[in-house]
Amino acid sequence: MIDKALMPEGVERCSLGRFLAWLGFIGLFLAWGLYGAFRILSSGLGVTGLDNYFGFGLWITFDLAVIGLGAGAFFSGFLRYIIRIDQLKNIINLAVIVGFLCYSGAMIILTLDIGQPIRAWFGYWHPNVHSMLTEVIFCITCYCMVLIIEYLPIIFENRKLNEIRFLHHMAHNLHVYMPLFAGVGTFLSFFHQGSLGGMYGVLFGRPFVFREGFFIWPWTFFLFIASAIASGPAFTMLVAKFMELLTGKKLVDFSTKVLMGKIAGLLLCFYMFFKILDTWAWAQGILPNMGLTFDQMFNSELGYGTWLLWLELGICGVLPAILLVVPAFRNRPALLYSAAILNCLGVVVNRFVFTVQALAIPVMPFDTWQYYIPNWAEWSTTLMIVAYSFLILSLSYRYLPVFPQERKLNA
Amino acid sequence: MQAHTFHIKWGMVIDIDKCTGCGACMVACQAENNVAPVTEASNKLRTLSWMLVYQLSNKQDFPNHDVAYLPRPCMQCGHPSCSTVCPVVATTKDEEGGIVSQVYPRCIGCRYCMAACPYHARYFNWHDPVWPEGLDKVLTPFTSVRPRGVVEKCTFCHHRWMAAKEKARHEGHDPSHLAEDAYIPACVDICPTGAMHFGDLLNPEHEVHKLSKSPYAFRLLEKLGTDPQVYYYSKREWVRRQGDNYLKHEKTKGE
Predict the structure, then answer these.
(1) Which residues of A touch B115 (CB under 8 A)?
(2) A194 and A231 in contact (C-beta within 8 Å)?
(3) Which of A234, A257, A274, B138 could staple A340 via S-S, CB 3.0–4.6 A?
(4) What are A44-66's pLDDT values in tens digits?
(5) DSSP secondary structure string, B35-53?
(6) Contact yes or no for B124 and A46 at CB 8 A
(7) Which ipTM score applies to this complex?
(8) How many CB atoms lie under 10 A from the CB of residue A240?
(9) Spans of chain B, pLDDT less than 70
């Protein structure tokens, strides 16, 4: 392999030809997505499936979902560097990379999603201090920068790059200051995860998502934080397992995965307790005050049935919470991974209903339910971000020392 | 968030019992405000209609069947759900008169305001505006045209207010005390049945002040707390009932 000198010492990688074939496969999705992005930027959002009812659709759902799932980075960083759970060092590099991919991918999608991408900087220049979206714009950008700073030492530890004296020292010094960045990242991520929820909770014209709360923060602010930190560690652990299946190598020991599952499970219990309470208070308080009933919030004919709620709360909420907190279940690989998948799926469903179902429900009594189907332009660009993530992960796995246990586990 | 208070509060009262649903207000609005015709209008959820006429039905069978028409401009809410969410202050409510403004060169097209508005009064420019050849010569010179990718909406023909104030100043009158007919939006101006009234809701000399206090007057979705400056008027109970989400046991306003 002509690129062997670039790989971490003592690890096995597939042949360059096979790797290039894999990158070519990823490239197909990237090319399709780039074509979609070109069409969107040159012709406008008219090429998408969005309309005046569904100003938010697949993109915002995807953004919210990946940002929630990417919370593994900030929360694992918090636990590793601030709380000092040492075992998480086995997976922290992956958590950082996954977080970086989720955030940078979300930012790319957001740039496509706004009608005037050239004015994207207006968010910093003309900020509306009352808007939760302003906070999201600031925090997401700052946190993305923090993730780049956290990713850099991993890149500098590439065998060839690390031979450069300056980069070697820089990587070392960045590692020394990492608790500081972990702290900053935790602060930033905490607030923008909340603001993403707050974005919906303040929509008092949309009874499906409106929540009263604590001072200026609606309950969704806190629920989004809780759901993100409950699913983020589970998602990071699943990515590790998925990479093991793809590469055929053991990358992270099972006890670390179990620890991630335990963290996710405890947080999921915390989240589900308040989510169920919130749902009950919403159905009993907010809806009747606005003249609406629980049944009016759902429409089975258009796919927005109550089954979505039960799926989110029951199958993807309470069930994985039980599976993850009870050691007897958590220690069985099949149950651990199944629970983690359900946990992550629950967050995706939550972000979907907040984004799409919220807009589908008629608020004016004479209005009607609407449905939304994303078209090729939205799918292509969304899959482009998935492909971009695969590309960065593949390159990172091949050339960077992402998994400190890999040599020992595959010896 | 605390609501702004103004000495003048421009408002509209629409008598639904007089409205025939002719759509003249929609046409006048489109012409006055340079709303570009959509080349391919098969998807009604992509068209731009700052003023939209909804058809209401009492949902009873003939011979008890009854319909009503409800024109819907921007409600210019006293407590707008849209302006507080805009991340770039492209839409605000801070000018005397209480009209919710929309600054097109500031808008980034995030469509958060559209998600916030329960009245669907905000429209996104999905495509570049294209006017049929020759039509560009009759565009209103006082209204800006909007590019693709920004959100736009009814402004109560704000430019007409500017012109009325200018005229008042020129004639030596106080521009902050305009006569009732000095400033009227295009939709009200053209309404053939006289169903639409416009004026200062706070001025007892204006018709809308009196009409808005009628027991038959109601506003859309009052329970949400948006405090709209557009009132509707109907003596038909079923129409008033469709103005807001009433629970079965609740009495309709005006009963």
Answers:
(1) 55-56, 203, 206, 358-359
(2) no
(3) A234
(4) 999 999 999 999 999 999 999 99
(5) PPPPSS-S-TTSS--SSEE
(6) no
(7) 0.94
(8) 21
(9) 1-3
